[in-house]
Amino acid sequence: MTTQTDGTDGTDGTRGTDGAASTASTAGPAIATARALVKVYGDGPTAVRALDGVDVDLVRGELTAIMGPSGSGKSTLMHCLAGLDRPTSGTVEVDGEEISAMSERRLTRLRRTRVGFVFQAYNLIPTLTALENITLPLDIARRPVDRAHLEHVVDTLGLRDRLTHKPAELSGGQQQRVACARALVARPAVVFADEPTGNLDSTSSAEVLGFLRRSVDELGQSVVMVTHDPTSAGYAHRVLFLADGRVVGELRDPTPARVLDALGALRTAARQ
Ligand code: ADP
Fold this sequence. Notes:
This protein is α/β, with parallel strands linked by helices.
């Protein structure tokens, strides 16, 4: 059986759900790649195969959304790509470096210097101001703050008049924008965002997603975002669909309607 997500443009469309490994690749240069990626949690009869042979190329300078039903492996894939979790087998490369076999020390360094994170729960330090939160990763890594870039990020995210506020004095949307600024200010090779608008109302979501997209279009950032929301996915250049630990489809230049159609087609295919 081959699953075709309706509405793909057909150029680098969708892949089969059967066969040895699911694949999603593009012609552009990759900021992160996974090859034959397998992640098994536990062992014996209760083992869970969260990733079941994923091959994927995430394109540099693009916003990629990862979608799929709950339990399909989205967070596991993101964590393996970001060096937060180690695969059971297979390889991961980030910005040209294979991270799957890196020592913990090098991996920590890579996460500090080359990878940015945005989490659903913002994860800001409550006792620090917005500005102190934004520069914290650079301070920890003892790297100088590039003032011009900081100013650009702060203005892009509309945070100029909030920099002296503590997180408790900011709305959820503003807190998440601070978290985005914190991820962007170190000029990471790639930013991973896990359900970045999961706690936000639709207006704040639109702001945060708009800024993530602008960070790609205007700052040249590469962003990978896990989401279950077709509207959020509509901000991406490309959507990858996961099911049962495999990439089962993709969509280029998505709109929320096309994402909904694709999800419907994948659900139908899963029932057959
Ligand atoms: P998603 O993000 O799409 O909801 P996950 O990557 O969180 O999916 O999970 C994929 C599968 O792996 C699920 O069956 C989940 O229960 C399982 N899983 C995830 N993390 C762990 C873990 N730490 N220990 C055991 N099973 C896990």
